[in-house]
Write a structure and sequence with these properties.
mainly beta; Jelly Rolls
């Protein structure tokens, strides 16, 4: 989908922090030849999150099994979000999957589509299941209920197929 170290597809990333709901976290991103750096500081006295999101697009990933991220972490837990056309009570929902990072280590994170949990404003829902034919947006969150600085380097976002391993 995009290799952030080589200047490939620009997904139109933008910042959304918890100040949309009165929170005090700060975060942002910068891109360069080394990838996308998502950094800031979370404050749980309020919303406690920071995120970067893509502009809307349309993507059919039904021939794949999940999302593969190449990251360099800081030891904190992050969340990858996918949005589709799915609705709950007429409102757009999102699908979240958490992943751990190791301090200062480069790693490949594979998140199967079956691991994504439907959410509405942070509340888990019983359904509907993620439909990979209808991907409309992606986001990267830090929402691990911890205060303090964070920094994650995102090198690439790809769809993967388990059969290709």
């Amino acid at each position: 989908m995009t290799d952030l170290t080589s200047g490939s597809t620009d997904l139109g990333w933008y910042v959304q922090n918890d100040n949309v709901m009165g929170g005090r976290s700060q975060g942002g991103f910068k891109t360069g030849p080394g990838g996308l750096i998502f950094a800031g500081s979370t404050n749980t006295n309020g919303g406690g999150f920071s995120s970067i999101r893509t502009q809307p697009f349309q993507l059919d990933l039904s021939s794949y099994d999940g999302i593969r991220l190449a990251v360099k972490g800081d030891g904190r837990r992050y969340t990858w979000e996918l949005q589709t056309t799915a609705r709950w009570r007429g409102r757009r929902i999102s699908y979240w999957a958490d992943f751990a990072t190791r301090q200062g280590e480069q790693s490949t994170v594979e998140i199967p589509f079956s691991s994504f949990v439907p959410q509405f404003r942070g509340y888990k829902l019983d359904g509907p299941e993620l439909d990979p034919r209808e991907i409309r947006e992606m986001a990267l969150y830090i929402y691990d209920q911890r205060d303090g600085p964070f920094e994650l380097r995102l090198d690439s976002v790809r769809a993967y197929s388990a059969a290709a391993h």
